[in-house]
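Backbone geometry:

***
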Amino acid sequence: MKNSRAVLHAAQILTGAIAVAAAYALKPGSTPRRPGQIVLITGGSRGLGLALAERYGRAGAKLILAARDLDELTAARQTLLDHQAVKSPDDVLLIPADLTDPAQATMFIDHAVSHFGRIDVLINNAGIIEVGPVENQSLDAYRRAMATNFFAALHTTQAALPHFLCRNPIHGDVAIVNIASIGGKVPVPHLLPYVASKFALVGFSEGLHAELRHKGVRVTTVCPGLMRTGGEAHAGFTGQTKKEQRWFTLAARTPILTASVRHAANKIYNAVAAGRAEITITPQAWLAARIAGLAPEATQYLASLANRLLLPAPATSDQLNLDFTLKVTYTADAASDQAINPSPS
């Protein structure tokens, strides 16, 4: 009898705590428009990064966009101008950089600060996706995912932190926004390099919030569900690559299951303006994160069922060798064709 009462009492406390947390998480926050903000976005040349640039640009912010490809950055700035999200090319500073290199990350942050005088919002958005079963994932796939999805954010944050901690109080609080993923809360099969790197980013981001909030630095962890970013065109695939591409592309493009980048950008903008510590995007992602926290074993069992019943089987060594041969042949043919019919400069 005593045990039953104790369990009931504990359940009541837990239910109350969940209700309070849900009320806090869902309450509308004030979203003041702060024109003149200096907003730095990594991975800002396309997808969610470009949508965030447009959202902040329309709010009057000056933008710093980083990516590895200068041509893509230039096209992104032109898109912002064409959409009238910014008034002038001078409102968008483009910095091509490989942020997996800490030296380049430091130079990137220093250049941004010297150009505009400060940074108000740092958005760590750069990321890559490696898709395929664990049996066919190489160690290099994990290294690439960790380098871009975790260490690039770490490098830019460490480089920016001295500037943030000694900033003039008249400019108000600064914000760091880490774009993680529901894959940083729930282990998704066939995405293990991505999942491992996003779990690392979520842990880093949440710990960073705990340490910096009272110092005037607000850290927002963003855990989106599936989004229609076009990222499937840039993902890496291994195993039975055609089948892996098929399921991943279908999941990434289905409207009911996914959110548009414009919707995600609006949610992130409002959350940062309200000083939120963490948000998920899409109801499915919100529910999945809560179920995983409350019932981790059941979540892992369901994931294992999905892996066994819905996802492609690992590729055999013969299939991998054939796929490699086809890639080599295609690359050689493409190079030969390019040599015969070079594109105009």
